[in-house]
Amino acid sequence: MNSICTTDPYCAELEQIIQQQKLNALFQPIAALNHEQAYGFEGLIRGPSAHFLHSPINLFQTAERCNQLVELDVACRKVIIKAFVERNLPGKLFLNICPTSLIQPSFRPGATLAYLKEVGLDPHRVVIELTETQSTGDYNLLTEALKHYREMGFKIALDDLGEGFSSLRLWSELKPDFVKIDKYFIQGIGSDPQKRQFVRSIQHIALHTGTCVIAEGIETAAELEVIQRIGINLAQGYLIGHPNVQPIAKIKLPTLQTQTPITIDQRSSHAGALLKQIPCASPADSNEAIWRRLSAQTDLIAIPVVENDKPIGLIKRSDLLELFSRPFSRELFGARSCATQMDRNPLIVEQATSLTELARLITSCERGDLNDGFILTEQGRYLGMGTGRDLIRAMTALQISAARHANPLTGLPGNAPIQETIAQLLAEQLNFTVVYVDLDHFKPYNDVYGYARGDELLQYCGHLLQRNTEPQLDFVGHVGGDDFILLLRSPDWQSRCEAILSEFQQHLSAFFSPTHLAENGYQAHNRQGQLQHHPLVSMSLGAAQIIARDYNTHHEVANTACAAKHMAKRQQGNTLFIEQRVTHQANSNHQAMYLNQDIA
Predict the structure, then answer these.
(1) How do residues 232-273 score in pLDDT, each as one tens digit?
(2) Cβ atoms 489, 222 nearer than 8 A
(3) Neighbours of 249 (CB within 10 A)
(4) Looking at the whole model, is its pTM more than 0.70?
(5) Residue ranges of the EAL domain (predicted)?
(6) Domain count for the chain
C-alpha cells in the first residue's frame, strides 16, 4: 500500500472505508436502441450515506490526496462486480477505472480477473471504462496495462470523449472497443448544428475504426431522435434510466418503435431500406478466389471484407481488374490475401442513418463511394451493402413525393404531408407543439398592392418560418393562402416563435410604401365593398402543446390549433397566444387555460 497522507482529516476514515468496503454500488442502464432492453450497465459507486465521502467526487479526490487511489479503485471494482452478479443483471458491465491507477507500481493486472473467477463472472462480459479525471502521462505504460486486460477477454471503453485532457489521442493510442461521447455534445444537439457535426464526425471515425459509440447524457426524446438519425444505437442518460440499486433491464422509450428492423415499406427514409445481402469475404480469402467470384457474379461491383463480424475493407472490381491486367500480376498476387488489395477506408454507415444524412456523407467524400457503394452495419456488425444508384432512386422518390404535395408558391409541404406528419407523431407517442401561423389583414394588402406583391410576402413568411425552426426536429407546412402550420419538437419552441414575430416586425417595412407606414395603414374595400381603413399586415401565432396520448387523430390536433389561432387573432399586432390544456384522462373533455403574450 502507498504511504498515506496524514494532513487530510478524511484519510483515516477513507482507509477504513476501503478496508471494510463500506461502499454502495448503483447501476445505470445503457440502452440498445433497436431493442427494448439494456445492452449493459455502468457500475457507479457511492460512499457511506450521510457522509462527506458519499459523493464519488469527494471520495476520489480525497483518495488522490491521501495516496489511496489504487486501493480505492480496487475496492470499488470488487463492490460493483459482486453487486452485479448478486443482482443477476444481464448484458455487459461497464467498470470504471482511473487510467492513472493502471500505471502505478502497485497495480496488479490479474487481480480483477481473479475476483471475477471467484464470483463467477465471465471477463468477456466486462468493459473496462477509462475515466480521464487527470492528465495521462505515460501512454506506453497504459497501453501495456490494457493489453493484459484484452488478452484476458475484457473490452475497453473510453469515457467522456470530447472532454478531458487528451481523449482523442487516447482513442488513437488505445484503440478502444467503445467511446462515450461527453454529455455536453449531446444536450441540446437538436438545436445546435456544431454539436451535430461533432457527433457525426465521431460516428464516422468510429465506424471506420471498428469502435461502438455510446451517447451519454440523453435526457429528452428530441436528443434521442437526433442520435438515432445519425446512426448511433447505444445510449445512456436519465431518459434511458437513472442510476439505481436494482435497475430495470427492460427499457421502454417512446421512439424505440422507430428502430425496429427496417424495410423499404416501413422506413424508406433510412439507409437500411437500401440493404442488399452481399456475402462478405474474409481476410483469409485470396485475390484469386475473390476474382473468381466477381467473374461469376457480373452484377457485383465490390465485395466487403469482414473480420469478427466487423467490416474492415472493400474489394472493388475495378481495382482487382486493374491489378490482374498487368503482366504476371495474377501469378504474383493471386494467392495473396485479399486484404492486400482492399480499400481500407470504405464508407460505412449504420442502417438507422437517414437517407439525407447518407447523401450528405457521400457528397462530402472525395472518393468514389457513389459508384462503389457503401457498407451497412448494425451496432458495428456487418449487415450488407447499399449502392449509390439505389440511394439516388430513393432520394428522387422522396423528392417527388414531397413535390407532389408541396404548396406551389412556397414549396413547403401542403395539407397531405401535414396530416401525415401529425398522424406519425401521434402514432409514435411523441409530444410536440402545434403552431397555427396566420397573417392578419392580408386580403386588403392584396387589393392595394396586387397579388404579385402578396405572393412575395407569403414567400418571405415561408423562408422566415424555416430560418427560425430546426430542420432536424421541426416541421414547417403551408396550409394555403396566408395560413401556415409549425410542428415543433425543439425544446426552445417558445423563444423560436418570439424570434419569428420579432423578425417579421423588423422586416415588414420593406413591403409597404412610406406613406402607408406613416399612416400605419391604408384605405381599401372591405368584404361588403365599402372603403375603410385597414391596419398594416401583422402575424398571429396560436400555439398549443400536444400530449400525444390525449389525441387520436390529426383532426383533433387541427381543431386545437384553430382554436389557438382564433384566440391569437383577437389581439392587435404581432401576437403569440399559447393555449395550455389541462387533461385529466385520455380523450376526456379538455379544460382550457389561456396565456396571451403580445410581442408587438
Answers:
(1) 889 999 989 999 998 887 777 654 333 333 333 334 567 888
(2) yes
(3) 17
(4) no
(5) 7-257
(6) 3
